[in-house]
Structures are given as C-alpha cells and as structure tokens.
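Troubleshooting entry. Yesterday's outputs looked truncated, so today I'm pasting the complete records for two proteins to confirm everything comes through intact. If either block looks cut off, that's the bug. Protein one:
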Amino acid sequence: MSVNVNASQLNTTQLLISVTTIEEAQIALENGADIIDLKEPSLGALGALPIETIQAIVTYVKNTKNADAKLTSATIGDLPMQPELLLAHVTQLATTGVDIIKIGFFQTDDYQLSLDALKSVAHAGTKLIAVLFAETMYPQGLIAAIKYAGFMGVMLDTAKKNGLTLLDYYSQEQRAIFAKTVLGHNLQLGLAGSLKPQHVALIKEISPSYIGFRGGVCNDNQRNLALDAAKIKAVRKIV
C-alpha cells in the first residue's frame, strides 16, 4: 500500500509525540505535535497498539482540521528480526492508512534477511522507518543497507526505559557522527530515548528531522501515565 508523505513535511526539525488513544492524539495536536506516533508504552520500547485502535486514531487525525500538515506513525511492536513475521505485520499495519511504519532493529546475526523481505513493500511506496537502539552495536554498513532497501529514514532510540536517556549512551561527537551518516544517505533522522525538554537544544545541534517524546511529556515523566499538555506545549516552543 502506498501512502502520501510530503517531503517538505520533514525538512525541518519536527515534534513527534507518542499517544495511545484518540484523546491523547487530540492533546498532542492541540499543543503543537507535528507527528502523532501510535504505540503502547506498557508493551516495551516499541509496543504496538491493537490494529483497531491504530485505525481509529489515524482516521481521527486525518479528519482533524489542518490534517494535511500532520503525519501519523505507528510501530509493529517489539518483534524479533524474523523476515516473514516483520513483513506480515508491516503489511497488516499498512492497511490502516498510517503514514509511516516504524520497525525496531533488535539484536540479530543477520539484518539483511529482514531488509530483503521488506524491500518490495518499501519500494512499492510504504514509508518505513528503521528504529535503531542506543544500547546495541550494529554492523558497519547497516545504514547504507537500510537506504538501499528503500526505507525513508532511521530513528535512534533507547530499548531499555530505565531512566537513562539517549544522551547517556551517545556523546555529542557520537551523535554528530551518527547524524552525518544517516543524513549523508539522504535518510530522515529521528531522535528519541527518554528525552526531556532540557535536552532539545543539544539534540537540535545535529539537525534531526524530528525529535520524539513520550515519558518526558507525561505526568511525573512516566511513559505509562497520561500526557501533560503543558509539557508538550513547552517542548513545542523550544523545538
């Protein structure tokens, strides 16, 4: 399934807010989110919402005023790198009309098998984002392979939600090198990982396409609690 994503929508740093319900999507939209990301925090780093919930939120966002200026993204869940399994979940998720599908690149001996399986749907127009994790060591050349497979971008996140942030794993120099590699392959660059408002200025130095938040804009900075509208608005002003 092909979805329409205007390249100009991601040509400056945008704000991604992860939501679990239509009510949270409304809060995120009203307080400045550019990308409404759909996931279930209680099910892991990239926990997936039920397909019916994703469909309902995507429909809501698309029917919202100025919806053409907003994007939706969703994750297929914390799945092992099994080619047929990933392809099946991506194919199902694409039927919801979500703009972007996020796939976690969890530890495996061979990422190429999964990339080969997903190449056909990516080249057919389904917009895929590879989510890499700061705790994982990836093989040299993986980002180039992701580009060749037809993905639209790479996101760097944290797999373990233990209070540590992306900045605890990647130094300023390492973040800059990572960004140069991703952007050098003409891929969109997303950054997340337990980020808080005070991290935005540092993150923006490497010109990411978007910065993702969940826990940092929730009550008590707990990703399983409700979104805090004031925190989203504060981050929006900084971004």
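Protein two, checking that the full record survives here as well:
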Amino acid sequence: MLKLGSKIRTLRVARGYTQEELADRCDLSRSFISQLENDQVSPSIDTLERILRVLGSDLKTFFSNDKRQEKIVFKVKDRVPMYLDELGIKGFILMDNIEDKSIDPKLIEMEPGAETEEEEPHEGDEFGFVISGKLELILDGKKYKVNEGDCFYYCADRKHKIRNPYKEKVKFIWIDIE
C-alpha cells in the first residue's frame, strides 16, 4: 500500500482543516479520513482527486517528486473567490496552492450590514488591517471598533466574527496564522 496518509495530513493541516472539516467538504466520513491518514485504507482515484481538490492540489502535484519552484509573486488573476455576493461579502484568497505556508491571507470587502458567520474557537491567530472604511470585530461577545488604517490581532481560541454595521463598504486584509 502506497503511504499517502502523512502527505494528505500535511496538506490538511496546512489548510487549517480538522479531519471532520475535510470529511465534510469531501462528503466523506471523519473515520475514513483518519484511516486514510494512518494508511489503513487506500482511496479510489476519484476520492483522492476530490480530497486533493479541496486541499488545493491535484494528482500531478501530489505525486510529483520534483521540487516545486518557489513562488514569489502572486498575481491578481490567480486569486480564488471565497464568499457569495448575496451575503454582501466578497473575499479572495491571495496565495493559493502553497502547501507549506503558515499564513492564509485574504482580501475581504464587506457591504454595509454584512457579517461573517461566528467562528468557533480554533488553533492559530488572526490578523487584520483595514484598508478603507471601518468594521466591528466581535470576540466572545465583546465588540471592538476597527477604523481605516487600524489593525487587529487575536488568538483564535474564542468565538469570533466580523461585521460591518456602518453605512460604507469596508475593505481589509485578513490573515489566518497557524
């Protein structure tokens, strides 16, 4: 049996997913992901392709023994959209297909009245810088006003969300740090 497990675990952790989150995104069970990462089962090609797609990779890259060329510049055209416009939030992952990164920067635009879903506590830290407008950061129910030019930083070990209760669009950089 080919030892895929540790490589899949590395990709999953690099994306910041728990086994359950990866399983949900791939329509698989958490126990299957666990067994896969421990090399107790082998996935079908279709299942492996689905897992790799969620993890921002593909079969060619995954099985390549070549050292990947270090990517320095990330072009606007390479950004990956994150949110639906109907929610009043537009987001873009700024650096994609980087398996060993410890940060995940995003460019976010929120319309007036828009807000993210409340995130449950998780590992890592989060940093933000408001480019234009202002926003409200809510950590465990406590509200913080963040104005244009301000930044925020917190340990993600508490419930958190961001909202725009103001009358103008806000644009900010949001970085998840592992």
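Both blocks look complete. Sanity check on protein two: The helical segments are 5-15, 19-26, 30-37, 45-54, 59-63.
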